[in-house]
Amino acid sequence: MARRKSGPVRKEPWPYTGFGVNLIGREELKEVQEVVRSKSLFRFYGPDPRHKADAFEAEFARYIGARHALAVSSGTAAVHEGVAACGIGAGEEVIVPPVTFIANITPVLLCGGVPVFADVEYETMNLDPRSVREAVTPRTKAILPVHLLGFPADMTGLREVAEEKDLYLIEDCSHAHGASLRGKKVGALGDIGCFSLQLNKMITSGEGGIVTTDDDRIYDNAVRFHDHGYNRFSGSHAGPLGLNYRMSELQAAVALAQLRKLDKIVEIVNSNAGYLNPRMEQLGLIPRKIIPGSRPVHYSIIYYLPDEIKMTAGQFSELVREEGVPAGQVYSGQPAYELDIFKTRATINRAGRPFTDPLNRFRKIRRCPVLERALKRAVSLPNSTNYTRKELNDMVAAVEAALRKARKQA
Ligand SMILES: Cc1ncc(COP(=O)(O)O)c(C=O)c1O
Question: What is the pTM of this model?
Answer without folding.
Answer: 0.97
